[in-house]
Amino acid sequence: MPAAANKTEDKVARIPLVGSFFNRIEGSAVVSTTGTVGLGVVGLMLVGGPAGTAATVTKDQRFVNCIPEKITNPFTNQPKFFLRKRPGFEVYNSGTALKASHIGNACHVWASKGTGAIPIFAIGNTNSEIFEATTSLGSITGKCTGITETILGTTPNLLFTSGDNTAWYYPSGGALTQITDVDFPGNASRTITGKFVGLDGYTFVMDTTGRIYNSDLNSIANWTATSFLTAQMYPDAGVGLARYKNQIVAFGKETIEFFRNAGNADASPLVPTSQAFTRLGCAGAQTITVLEDTVAWISSSDRNGIGLYMLDGYVPKRISTATIDAQFQKASLSDLSTFSFRLVGKTFIGVVTLGTTFVYCVEDDSWHEWTSPDGPLWTYVAGTTGSNSILYSLSGQVTAGKAYFINSQSLQYQDASANFTFLVQTSKVDFDTIKNKFGAKLSIVGDIAGAACTVNIQWSDDDYNTFSTARTIDLANNNPNLTAIGSFRRRAFKFTNSDSNFIRLEAMELQFREGTH
């Protein structure tokens, strides 16, 4: 009787999109790309990825200009994971520059004015011109380092700090005015750092020695020479202030202290609280961001510690990974800045460093990256509250003098009318065996596009050193796939899309047959 034929059945593996940024830190050339969230392969988590200018490498897993989505079935409590293209930033004011050939300095949404959430922009290369929407309110000397707001009586006021040690305010319906009181610390040979913080009718600001100065009660213009106290639990330099619930957070280079208003009639009204001291500092005032009811910042310490932290109660919670921290350490502290925002139902904290933007999604505890054809358009971000839900931004690098925005009710997928690249690059896939795999078909699982939407597919069998010639599929097809994808032992796949369409992917499905070693 003849021997039976040796048959090998095809296997099918689905690779879901889930995870968080990770890449090899050393040993590869740097590139100018971004975006990473992570990838899982048949129960085994494979992570990796790159970043941007002088910040990371071309090898390992990469997710560029993506947002992770986790959806849980309420009946089975089982999660499904997707990866969607991030929305694009449109140019505000019908594309017209507010201050041509200048960079952005600060952005704020004026919520207390009472006529709707109004964007406030500070733009300038040397001095800052202040805009209420598209109307110029005048200029301040030096670059604006922060915008806050307060109400005196019934009048909403904007407050501005500047890099030349001056400070300014703008009462609604009034004029942009410099604080000239000789007892204001910037006028008294003290170097202010960070922006103003308001609490219970006082306006507070910090200097670089760690002193916390306060205005007279219910005043911005008037200050008293003795109205200060010093963050003093540990000798430290001052970095900046933030408001956390009903307390003032004082950031130093190596420490954090919390203060409350004790109602003192003389000197400072502040006293340390029971959460008085944390031996972890802040890298710079520009790295502090207030996100709804919490605060996040880039840390520094006397042990070369650096990372992104967020207050959890009154305890610092580290939310960056070792790989992300290694990316931060490639930059000087002055090159790091943070911002925070909400978009498409998610809460994000962004860190701009060396031209790359690392973005942390709070709900999914995941890191990814964003990039844009012209550089980061979102160095400074402020969002509205209410039904219009608009996210405004300025670039600290692009010298177009323009403001940008995302309207959550009308999302589009270009940055300043230019297409940007959505990119997914997987880790090397071998399914825990070095046997040869003979690829029969590669399918993309995701939303069917409403119009032609081309995705280029490439692969590398030599540790990302070379990639195959791109083959294309159209996500408008009901079953987007490629056949005859060749043999491999370990293969990384790359998917790119550079049109203005929305994309949401769920998985890559690979049909293959295993051979001998």
Give the arrangement of secondary structure elements:
Blueprint: E1 11-16, E2 39-41, E3 44-46, E4 62-64, E5 66-72, E6 79-85, E7 90-91, E8 104-110, E9 118-123, E10 128-132, E11 135-140, E12 144-152, E13 155-162, E14 167-171, E15 177-178, E16 192-199, E17 202-207, E18 211-215, E19 223-230, E20 238-244, E21 247-252, E22 256-261, E23 270-272, E24 281-282, E25 289-291, E26 294-300, E27 308-312, E28 315-318, H1 322-329, E29 337-343, E30 346-353, E31 356-361, E32 366-370, E33 380-383, E34 390-394, E35 403-407, E36 422-425, E37 437-446, E38 454-460, E39 471-474, E40 481-488, E41 492-497, E42 504-514
Antiparallel strand pairs: 1-42, 2-3, 4-36, 5-6, 6-42, 7-35, 8-9, 9-10, 10-11, 12-13, 13-14, 14-15, 16-17, 17-18, 18-19, 20-21, 21-22, 22-23, 24-26, 25-26, 26-27, 27-28, 29-30, 30-31, 31-32, 33-34, 34-35, 36-41, 37-40, 37-42, 38-39, 38-41
